[in-house]
Each structure stands twice: as C-alpha cells, then as structure tokens.
Queue: 4 jobs
Job 1
Amino acid sequence: MSIIRRHKRRAPIFLWTTEILSFKEKNIVYNDKFKNVFFCKSKEKEDGQMCIMWGRTSANTGDKVEIKCKFLNNVILVKSMLVIERKKQDE
C-alpha cells in the first residue's frame, strides 16, 4: 500500500492492491447511486477489511483489484477500482 496524495487537513489517499474475499452488497441502488460493500484480504484482520464503493462494479469474489482509497472510521472508502486479474473459472 502506498500513499499517492497527502493533504494537510484531509485523510491521505492510498493505492492498494488486494483480493476481494466476499461481497455483502453488490450494485444495490440507493438514491440513484450504486453501492457496493465488500471485504478485501488484509494482514490485520483475518476475516477481511470492509470496503465501501459508490458506483457500479463488474468485480467478483476472488478477483485481484487495485483500489484508490482512504481510511475513515476503520472502513475503507474506495474512490476507484481497477480489476487486475479475474478469478479463473473451473470448467
């Protein structure tokens, strides 16, 4: 995880490469916006770190993603997400 932007009064923005463990909510509409709540692999938490993203996503459980994010009240707020590697489908 690396800091890509630091402001004097705002929370720093991080660039984090991780894997999605599970989705709690995926592409649910709230007030004309899409909300995603998911858990990512973390060193500190065994069950994963909770992440919230406002916007539609095509990511699935098991995908490796790179996210721009900031920490707020023990939750990661995702600004943008890029799927680096999709989970291989068993045939």
Job 2
Amino acid sequence: MNQVQQEQLRQLVEQAWKLYGELSSHFWEESIIRKVDNDLWENPLLPDCEVWEVLTRKDDRTVAVTHLGWHTRRQQWLEEEIGTHVINLDSVRLEKIEDYRDIPDWAFTYLHERKRKSESKEKDITLAAYEHLMQEAGFDRQSEQYRSEARRIIERIIEGMTVFDALETVENNILREKLRPFIYVTVLRAGVVILRESDAISAALAEDLRTYLRSLTEGEHR
C-alpha cells in the first residue's frame, strides 16, 4: 500500500468512526493495518476486490475494527463497503485471551492485566477460605512457625503444587510430619465445600464429612 492509499484509508476510517462521536487522541496509537486473506472474504458481489482490516484505539478499553474494500482494477477504496465493529476488552472471556493475539499490543497487554488481577483476586479469596478452615480447626493455638509454614504450604497448593510436593518444601522434618495430616485434612475439607456448593453432594453428607475431617485434627490442636 502506497502513501496515498494509506492516507485515503485513514480518512475513510476516521469518517466512519466520527459518526459515533469524537475520536480519541490515541485513536491511531499502535494501530494495525493489514490485508485480509481473500479465502476468508471471498464475495462474488465484490469481484477484483481486496479486503483490508484496520484495528485502532476507540478508547483505553475498546478496539475499533474497520473493514474496507480496495478495488484492484479501479484502484480505489469502496466507500459503500466499509464495515465496523468493536472489541470490548472488558467483555473478552479471560480463558479465550490467546485467541486475541492479533490485536494491538496495548489491547493484548490490557487483557493480560485483567487476567492477572482476576487471578490475584481469586487467590486472595481462596486463601481467605483456607484461613477460615484452619482457624476452625484450632489453628490459632499452634506456634507461629507452624502457622507460618501452613499458610506458605497452602499458598503453594493454590498456585498448583501438589500437597506432597508442597509439604516437601518444609525443611524441618519434625514440623513437616506434624503439618502433614493437618494440611491434607484442610485440603479435603475445602474439597467438601466445593462439592457442596456445586450440589454434587447433599447438605447432610457434607456435614457428615466435615465433622469427620475436623475430628482427625481436633486432638492435636487442643
């Protein structure tokens, strides 16, 4: 695409989006202009036409997507064939982030920051839930070292480590073996909570399991 074509393209894109309000001062920042694979856009109503896609910054949370047709025989843009839509970055499902690798870098960075904050929030909520379960089991009556190591192990488990491997990070052999039943029971109690919340087990069964699991550690935490 030569400079004249690109300038005409920019003017058409701006005209299309000005219909929706004033353009952001960052509208063209880190923009992407690319020709779309003709196999994906083959249209018998548009012979001798190339389709171009333009990704611009509508605002800090929205990618403006514009499609324009370039008539290769006439050597001009088809103004009547301009199509627009937006990608709302706050609406993108976080598990689908990798499907958006072809958007501008600023937008992809925004998605990853959203994911990081979401994971951090989920981790904090999960840690709080585990803390509650440990307190219920008399956790506060244990030594500071015991409580510190237990919290560290639970954090490793939340991050994806197995219970066995997380326990193996405790250097003190005596403390590790003292923590072992407590950590396993705590993780199992958390599992019961999840099963109950998903209606996989009845309230009566959940209470029965909670009572039994609590009994396994009550003696050592008195």
Job 3
Amino acid sequence: MAFKHFGINVPDAVAMAKWYVENLDMNIVCSTDSPPYTHFLADSTSRTIIKIYSNPNDPIPGYSAQHHLRSQIAFATNDPCAIKEKLIKAGASLVLDETTEDGSQVITLRDPWNIPFQLAKRTLGKEDKDGESKDRGRDLVLIQSEAAVLYVSLEETLAELDSIKYGPCPENLVELTMARAKKKKPCPRCMKENTMKSESSFWHRLFGLPKTFLIILVIILACILALINFASEISDFFR
C-alpha cells in the first residue's frame, strides 16, 4: 500500500493551485474546468501529494479560526528563510519560526486562504529515535530535485521486493539443482540452433582459412578437372 494524495476542500481551488505552482514549485498533474474545480498537484519530484477542490456539498472549513497544528502541508527546503520572505511578499503570513532541539528549522505559514503549511530544514541526528532519522535523511535527499527523482524511483522499484518471502537455503541445494537439470527436456529451438551450427561449421572452417591457401586449392582443383577432361579426350581418340 502506498500513499496517494491528501484532499482539501478550499475556497478557491483554481487560484490556490496557481499560487502553489508559482510559489511552492508545484505542478498541476490534472484539473477540471467545472465545479468542483478539482486540481491534483505534484511536488518537484513529480509525486502527486495534494488534491484541492471547492465543493459546496460540504461547508468550507474556517481555516483562519483553526489552530495551525490541526493540519498542515510540509515542504523540505535547504533555505527556508529565503523562501519565507518570498512567500510573505506573495501573500502568505507568518505563524511561527522555530528551531527544534536537534537544530532543525521549521517555519509555519498560512497561504492567502489561511491554510497552514511548513518549510522544514531537518538536521540529521546520530540516533534513530522512532524512525525520525530515516525521515530526516529522506527530507535532506528531497531537497535536491535530481536526487529526489532518483530516490522516489528507487523507492517505488524496491517496494515490490517487500512481497518476497525469504526461507532457509536447503543443505542439498547443489544436488537438487543437478537433479532438476538432468530432468529438464532439451529446448527444441536450442536443438535446431545446434544443428544449424554443426552444419555450418564446415563452411565456417573452410572460409576461415587464409586466402592464399584457398587460391592454391582452387588452382589444384582446376588442374585436376583439366587432367580429367584431357584423359577423357584421349580415351575417345583411341576408340
């Protein structure tokens, strides 16, 4: 099972998608031009992570009245301070700028629709407490776009190996392999190829000889044919 996306009902999905693309390095994977104006957004690694829509069937949450800890979107970045200033100029508002005990920097902001999001620069610790070190290492990799694409591709490829069940190697593995090889029937295609190879081996050896030798051989054969013809003519003459 793999994460697909996180859906959010927002006041203006079209404008929000445009803002996230222009300011948070996201891409619109697909969208609809009619209500509820659904947009699927992918990050810089091409992973689709957010689905936003403006659906009146459920009241739009009052994001401005909600605490920023209720829900948030987080982005890994190598320079959160510089990006923070850029986003504030683009209409975001600062909520919290803090440095954690391990030295990680986490900046919480609200977008123009008051939806909380974070900019995080994690510090990789020496100890792995509840898997935090693994998450921090992944965040550091995702900062670089090329490394992030490679990481995501490798992660998806290796995920298929999780279904493999490992078992102890039998002590008589060699004997079992040899027995299976003896019982295996020869491949008809392989037999045909071997036959063709044996038939062509004579000609391969013949034409693989030096050119000088072949010329001499042709001359000798020509002389023999000439002698045979000459002997045949003499025989006809004395009859």
Job 4
Amino acid sequence: MQDYNVMNNSSLLSTVSKTDLYKICEIEELVIGNFLSNIQEATSACFDIGIGKLILEWNDDDIVFNFIPSERFSDIILKGLDKDSVLIHRLEEALVSKITAAYKDLL
C-alpha cells in the first residue's frame, strides 16, 4: 500500500498552514463526537465531510465506518487512476494565466 500525506501537500498548495489544517480536522472530530453524544436511540449517522459522506453504524461495542465519495471526488480519483492529474491541469492553467497577465502588463 502506498502511503501519502494529504495534509502536507494541501498546505503547500493552499494558503492554509498545515497547523491550521490539523486544527480544522480536530474541530471536525469534536463536532462529530458532540453530535453523536447528543442523539437519542439512533444506530447510525451520516456526515458530509466535503469529499463525500462518512456513514457510521453502531450497536453495543461495534462501529462500522463507511465512506461514499462525492461524484466530483470519485471523478477525480478515476482520472488519477487513468494517469490524468486534475491538479497538474489546474496548476498549468494557473501558470499560463499568470504568465499571460505578466506579459500583458509589460506591453
């Protein structure tokens, strides 16, 4: 299995520090935990986590975790498996746009 740290690369590609990304994840964990502590007589819950839905089902001491990716995330995963990187395309578009803007400023 290939191991990959999404948080490191997300921080490099955004204006959000790795520390802040981890803080956001910690807050999300606390929010989900709080929600679960307040529900009555349920045996499942579904959380939209941005890239899909996290579904928890439980009884007694057993917890089952299921993940259903969003359509957009699923499409990006499929493109990646076909060796077509949406990220590279976006970075190339951004670079071309910046170079074009700089060139226009010089004229």
